[in-house]
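Minimal example, chain plus D-mannonic acid.
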Amino acid sequence: MKKLSQKSLASLGAATAVPAYDRSAVRPGIVHFGLGNFHRVHQAVYVDGCLHQPGNEGWGICGVELIDVPATRAKAQSYRNQDCLYTVTEYAPDGSAATRVIGAMVDYLHAPDDPEAVLARLVHADTRIVSLTITEGGYNLDETTGLFKLDTPEVAADLAGGPPRTAFGFIVEALRRRREQGTGPFTVMSCDNLRHNGGTARKAIVSFARARDAGLAAWIDAEVDFPNSMVDRIAPQIPPEVKERLNQRSGIDDAVPALGETFSQWVLEDDFRAGRPPFEAVGVEMRNDVPAFEFMKGRMLNAAHILLAVPGILIGHRIVHEALGDQRLYRLLDNFLDRDAIPRIEGPQGVSLENYKKAVLERFSNPAINDQLLRIAFDTTAKIPVFHSRTLEMLLADGGDLRREAFFLACFGAYLNGRDDNGQSFDVVEPRLSEQDWELARGGNPIDLLRTSPFAKLGLADHLEFAKLYGGYVAMIQATSVGKTLETLLVETA
Ligand code: CS2
């Protein structure tokens, strides 16, 4: 196996596509926060495509890691050893695969080691886009009020002064310096999977800035662009055995290989006063109807994903395609999409929601992706409101069938206990449930789960019909199992 590095690129063999551009000439024009697998198989791949177009040397990526734990330190070292290169192996639903080396990232900064170096990079005139994948909940907005939370410990520490620790702290301090020096703003491009991601990023950053300096906040609000986008590509985690399999397949010794489906979509608003790479040349759809795509994806793909993950884990599944192979779960998703979601979504013009549904179920069935249900269930508390609340609100308003959503939330309560139908335990990672929320969720009265902060706004606990259905499913799950309760639901709704 060949160790991956700039030097070894020429000898990797014809089966692997490698950067055909001169990486030594590439400067970072994009600074990215959140170097997870999704960024690596999505935005970085598109940018790599742009770098293959002549004249785009100014659009390399400088990755910034904010989190200081052994795993991120090890990752930083791996990137350094590999000249910031990594492989992406793309698997088609028929199992065929192709590996490509991505060269878009040309620099990597571990922020806790040297925050000033990150600020210097952000302030540099070459930096024209700052992009983010900091997760749905990472924007630090209160679920109930929608306001930016100034008292989150890391945010409060950043506001108190000293070297920044959060993306907000870095971005606002960098913009302050750029304004002072007359460098002009960069564009902030959120690539997180949430509705109105640009507007959400604007809200978070402007709110943070306002807590520092109202004049600066007004300047950011007026001068910085925050394009909205819909991003889509399934990127599973890479446990050691998958890493081994990917490297065996490619013949490349890559310490940080990535894996993705062949499907990829990016619909982006063309709102970049500070300039941008030629995204349209590499398949990005530059459009002004992004919200229609966001709604379709969030309320169908992501909503179905989490609806598969929570009951799926409880029934005993751990892998997405295996869960979907369970006919009970397949029918749950199919019914949810057909009856609850699709009739209440206005899709983008010219896009068939029926076809979109078929594609989603086919993508989930791709065995080569081997995606983890626990990855999807991570931070469910932040995801359910984002992906399910609109459908729920509409079902409540138009007298729709509440049974599937009531079953789902009853499962969510059971999920928080961390034990499945077979008595197997699993890790519940819910960073956004407060102490008070945990008390409500564990207090012994199941209805209180609907009063926790993520759900309080929907008023579900006080909706008689919903509360009754929910209570019924909770009781049935406790008395029998999630599997049996799902079977009953399917019979009742046949
Ligand atoms: C998943 C997404 O974690 C989740 O909520 O639904 O990560 C999903 O895989 C991506 O949005 C696909 O684009």
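The CA atoms of residues 123 and 174 lie 5 Å apart. The first helix runs from residue 37 to 41.
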